[in-house]
Amino acid sequence: MSTSSKQTVMVVEDEEAFIDALVVGLQREGFAVEVARDGAEALSNFDKFNPDIVLLDVMLPKVSGTDVCREIRKKSQVPIIMVSAKGTEIDTVVGLEVGADDYIVKPYRIRELVARVRAALRRSSGSGSEVFDSSTSVSVGDITINTEQHLVTVRGQLTKLPLKEFELLYVLMANAGRVMTRDTLIDRVWGSDYYGDTKTLDVHIKRLRSKVEVAPSSPTSILTIRGLGYKFEKSS
C-alpha cells in the first residue's frame, strides 16, 4: 500500500510494453501504481498492495485473470476492471460473471482508461448515484431484498449476491411492474459516468436470473422488454 494519500492502482499485466505505458500514464494522472506480472503474483501481493482498484488482464501466466478476479471477490469488493485483447470477448464476459465491474479492450487510449478508473473509484466510494431510497426491505412475490442487512431471500432461502447484482435486483424490484430502460438501469446501478457498454448489464441480468428464477431460461420474474430494457413482473 502506498504511504501517500494517492489512490493505488494494481496493474496485473504480463506485457512489458503495456506495463511501461500504464505506469507512466497512471502516475502522470496522480495515481500510485503497483505491478504484478502474473496471476499468482497478483494474488500473493494483493493484501500487501491493498489497492483501491485493480486493472486486471484476462490472459495471464500461471493463474488466469478470471481466476484472479474470482479469488479477489472472495475477500474484497475492490473495483476490478478487466482488460482483454480483441477476440477474447468470451473471457471478458466470464470475468464480468465472476465479479468484475467493467472491462476495456486493447488497444485503448490512456485517457479512456483513466476515465473508467476514476468513474469506478467514484462509484465504489459512494459518491456516484444513490441506488437505495429510504426503504430497507422490498418484497415482490416470493423474493425479498433487505438493503440494510444486504440479504436476499428467494422462496424462503437466503441467496448471496455480489454488490452490483444486489443493487440491480433492488432497482428492478423497487420498480416492479414498470419497464426500466437499459440506460436507466445503467445510470442507477453503474452511474451516469459509466463508460462501458450494455453487455455488462446483460451479463448481470443473466446471473440474477440464474439465482432467482425457477427456470432461468424461461424467466417469469425478470422479463426482457425487447427494444427497451427489463421489467420485474409484479405477479411473479
List keywords for this structure.
Rossmann fold, elongated, four-stranded antiparallel beta sheet, 2 domains
- The CATH architecture of the largest domain is 3-Layer(aba) Sandwich
Helix and strand pattern: EHEHEHEHEHEEEEHEHHEE
* Sheet with most strands: 5 strands, parallel
Lateral arrangement of strands in the main beta sheet: 2-1-3-4-5
Task: Bin the helical content.
Answer: 25-40%
Average pLDDT rating: 85
Can you count the helices?
A: 8
**Contiguous runs where pLDDT drops below 50 for at least 5 residues:** none
CATH class of the largest domain: Alpha Beta
Approximate shape: elongated
Class of secondary structure makeup: alpha/beta
Distance between the termini: 48 Å
CATH superfamily of the largest domain: Response regulator
Can you characterise this structure?
The protein has 236 residues and is of the alpha/beta class. It has 2 domains: 8-124, Response regulator (Rossmann fold); 137-232, Winged helix-like DNA-binding domain superfamily/Winged helix DNA-binding domain (Arc Repressor Mutant, subunit A). Helices cover 39% and strands 22% of the residues. It is built from 8 helices and 12 strands. It has helices at residues 16-28, 39-49, 65-73, 89-97, 110-124, 163-174, 182-190, 199-212; strands at residues 8-12, 32-36, 53-57, 80-85, 102-106, 137-140, 143-146, 151-154, 157-158, 179-181, 222-225, 229-232. The chain has a 5-stranded parallel β-sheet, with helices on both faces. The chain has a 4-stranded antiparallel β-sheet with strand order 6-7-8-9, covered by helices on one side. Helix 3 runs parallel beside helix 4 (89-97). It is elongated and about 55 Å long. The mean pLDDT is 85.
